[in-house]
């Protein structure tokens, strides 16, 4: 589905990604793990069209997307749920959700909303509540729901469990599995390495802007270097 080849990205004179190559197969959950500053968020922003590459290629369903704008990327079926939720705090839950449907015909939006409410029943009850008054976990539900309103074929999630209580972390990962089961491919950036690799079909470890390791989720969990560096084992 998504194929990235020898991608290089810089912030001015500071190189952030070095020859990054990876694939996200259709229908799978792919986890991208690594320390802060490894380049994970930079990679998602580049795929989303928010950053421009220096060199390398990005193809989605066989089509080159390197020069596509962020709205065009969404129309291709790629939706990015950013780190930190980035909600509109003074708007209601339902208005935040509808902001994710700007590429969707108005006639299809009620059906999209019902799909989100099926996944997050709590949001249906809170749909008229101001988003900024929600708890962190509830805001994360809105952020993921807003992403789903775009009807993604590929959903990119950046640190969805960040700052959440353990019980809510479990819920977020349950929802990710459910979304994937409904047919959405997932590229998951996550510092919770144990959880991410446990549910991933495939994983990549980033270090200092490069792909250091790749394999199935179970293979990486069993890797001694991963266990020492990221699991404290």
Descriptive notes:
The structure is a single chain. The chain has 233 residues and is an alpha/beta fold. It has two domains: 1-77 and 153-162 and 185-233, P-loop containing nucleotide triphosphate hydrolases (Rossmann fold); 79-151, no CATH class. Helices cover 38% and strands 27% of the residues. The protein has ten helices and ten strands. The strands form two sheets. It has a six-stranded mixed β-sheet, with helices on both faces. A four-stranded antiparallel β-sheet has the order 2-1-4-5, covered by helices on one side. The longest helix has 16 residues, at 166-181. The chain is globular. The model has no long low-confidence stretch (mean pLDDT 93).
Overview in brief:
This protein has 233 residues and is an alpha/beta fold. The chain has 10 helices and 10 strands.
Helix-strand pattern, N to C?
Answer: EEEHEEHEHHHHEHEHEEHH
Strand content: 25-35%
Residue runs with pLDDT of under 50 for 5 or more positions: none
Shape: globular
CATH architecture of the largest domain: 3-Layer(aba) Sandwich
Any idea how many domains? 2
**Count of DSSP strands:** 10
Structural class: alpha/beta
| Fourth-level CATH superfamily of the largest domain | P-loop containing nucleotide triphosphate hydrolases
What's the pLDDT, averaged over the residues?
A: 93
Which CATH first-tier class of the largest domain would you pick? Alpha Beta
Number of helices: 10
Most strands sheet = 6 strands, mixed
Rg calculated over all Cα atoms: 17 Å
Highlighted features:
single chain, 233 residues, alpha/beta, Rossmann fold, 2 domains, 6-stranded mixed β-sheet, 4-stranded antiparallel β-sheet, 10 helices, 27% strand
